[in-house]
Design brief:
This protein has eleven helices and eleven strands. By secondary structure, the protein is of the alpha/beta class. The two termini are about 40 Å apart. Belongs to the LysR transcriptional regulatory family.
Length: about 280
Amino acid sequence: MDIRVFKTFLEVAKVKHFGKASENLYITQAAVSARIKQLEDYYATKLFIREKNNIRLTSAGERLYQYANAIVEQLTHSKLNLTLAETNQVLINIAATPNVWDAYLAGSISAIVSQASEVTLGAEISSRESIHRRLIDKTLDIGVLSDPIKGDELINEKIGTFELVLAATDLDCLNKQDKFNYVLVDWGMAFLKEHNALHKFTPMMRTTTAKIALDVILENGGAAYLPVELVDPYVKEGQLFLLHSNLNIQRSVYLTYHKSNAQHEKIKHLICKLD
């Protein structure tokens, strides 16, 4: 089965429109319809419910969706690996959750690339759920997260820590409950458990990305738990202030990989560079 058929299926499922999918894929709408029909004929079932101005996945289509994602990822991954094999390079794909990327990995990724000359590094930001799934199906080599991922097939190694501070645009903002703009940044399950036990105020916004939280409070005023390295320049300029907090603000960073990963030794080498 041509990979383009699965890519077309994923695009239609994403935009819920054959015409928009054809525009995004730079093919005709007839070609989109033909590829979907090819899949439906192959699986002998309908994959989309077509109603006026509404296209949605059938139950069979929803089940195929996760497999189609894995197929596209695996074929793309294998094609790149085969290309690199001609130059004796090894591809290592690494993904971090948005918060860990902002707080920990962003500052070291350039150094890793410059030192790891024996590998080609693929780096991206992804959700915890996607990282978990791709580690299991081996389309991802390394996940970097603030909480370990449980599973007999996975290995979690603590590679470092980062410090959070409660940063605010106003030293007295915690006492202004009626006008208090608080942005809750998701720093992992352990953080959220401690946070909810300590703080009772309702956030105006929730995000997985520290930089989004920073932009929001700088624009609108308010507070958020942010990495000390990220807020330090704004503290020095007097745009942000550090507030006292009883929350444990030393967070751990874990590197997770599949124990049967073929690039185990290369991964261990990269761990040393991250540690």
